Amino acid sequence: MDLLLLDLVIVLAAARLFGALARWLGQPPVIGEIVAGILLGPTLLGPLIGDELFGSEMRPPLQALANVGLVLFMFVVGLELDQKLVRGKGRIAVTVALGSTVVPFVLGCVLALAIAGEHVGGDKTLPFVLFMGAAMAATAFPVLARVLTDRGMQRITLGGLALASAAVIDVLAWTVLAVVVGIAGAGESEGQWKVLLALPYALVMFLVVKPLLARLVPAYEKAGRLTPGLLSLVLLGLIGSAWATEWMHVHFIFGAFVFGAVMPREGAERLNHEILERLEQLAVLLLLPMFFVVAGLNVNLRELDLSSLGTLSAILVVAIGGKLLGSYAAARTQRLPNRQSWALASLLNTRGLTEIVILTVGLQKGVLDDELYSLMVVMALVTTAMTGPLVRRIYPDRRVARDIAEAERAALGVTAAHRILVIVPDPPAEQAPLVGLATTLALSRSPSEVVLGHLRPYPAGRLEVGSGLSSELAELAETLHDLEALAGSARERGSETRVVSRFSADVAGESPELAAGARADLLVLPAGVPGYAAVRDGAVCRVVTVSLPVPEQSEPGSEPGPVAVRYGSGDDAAAHVALTLAMLWNRPLIVTGGNRASALAQRLSKLGVAAAAGAIPGNALVVAADTGTAPEGAHLLVRAEQDPDPVDWAEAVSALRAPAPRL
Question: Which UniProt key words apply to this protein (predicted)?
Answer without folding.
Answer: Ion transport, Membrane, Transmembrane, Transmembrane helix, Transport
